[in-house]
């Protein structure tokens, strides 16, 4: 009986510590801003269709300091890889070593997928995201809405919670969200370091969000 | 030849392809002075062939690496409500008619089409009102669409992350 109580207490304490760490990681900035080291390693989540177009427009604007760039796409996505390669090929080759990588993870959720199967597929994606993010150790995760980004952001947060590295979560809500946030946006809003919205109606509803007008 | 370019992005939108190639619609387009209809059908099941319309010359394809050239040559763009397609048409400075797919559940794409319509950047309708809209549309009311400023994003991020 006491063994059971002890176990339950230990479990409760672990969960409490985990939540406390999550809270501390989310509200704290970096001790040393990533840019101070001279470069910012970015994990870029490329969703399908419009998501990729939007994120590539953002990537075009970033300076050469944002390197290496690790693109992650869903395994069922066929078009994003081409767009990424085209974009990266247009960049000047300043170093001989690889400036970018492309990785694939199982898609978290297809459009119209049911709730229950979405949980299963998101957990599957998480199983791939964790080792990937732990290996890449980005300074920042940049994403803009596809379900693919949730397990990757969770993995980034975990890196911080375990005290291994603070990963900045930078989320840019799609320009097609004017009045309401996407499901991914609603999930990541509380835990993002920088959460961008592109219409003033959303800025009014989500005061923690950054509003710079249309950025894509 | 004045061209109408129809695009459904990476989706499937058979109802639009069907409506836009119907004799009702092609007759209206011809009456408005359009001679050519180019259809990007994406994952749709309908791929009309070149002789499917009596009134216009028709060209159809599923995907291209880039539709920039088709956008450039278009005099009117009819698009699904996808953000990428809309932005591409508006960035190309083309008059845009967005056809909303009301069969899609939780159609959040409507939000942007509605806002851009309110801001007079595009016209919008559904497949059932396509004929009516094409008959009565006045493209001169459309306002030019200023481009987004990703540099503002980059500058903000540089400052926030301490990038020099």
Structure, described:
The complex is a heterodimer of chains A (216) and B (164). With 216 residues, chain A is an alpha/beta fold. Chain A is built from seven helices and seven strands; from the N terminus they run H-E-H-E-H-E-H-E-H-E-H-E-H-E. Chain A has a seven-stranded parallel sheet, with helices on both faces. In chain A, helix 5 (149-161) links the parallel strand 4 and strand 5. The radius of gyration of chain A is 18 Å and the shape is globular. Chain A starts with a helix and ends in a 5-residue tail after the last strand. In chain A, 43% of the residues are buried. A six-stranded parallel sheet of chain B has the order 3-2-1-4-5-6, with helices on both faces. Chain B is elongated and about 60 Å long. Chain B starts with a strand and ends with a helix. In chain B, helix 5 links the parallel strand 5 and strand 6 (123-126). Chain B has 164 residues and is of the alpha/beta class. The mean pLDDT of chain B is 92. Chain B is built from seven helices and six strands. Chain B is 37% helix and 17% strand. The chains are: A alpha/beta (216), B alpha/beta (164). At the A-B interface, helix 2 and strand 5 of A face helix 4, helix 5 and helix 7 of B.
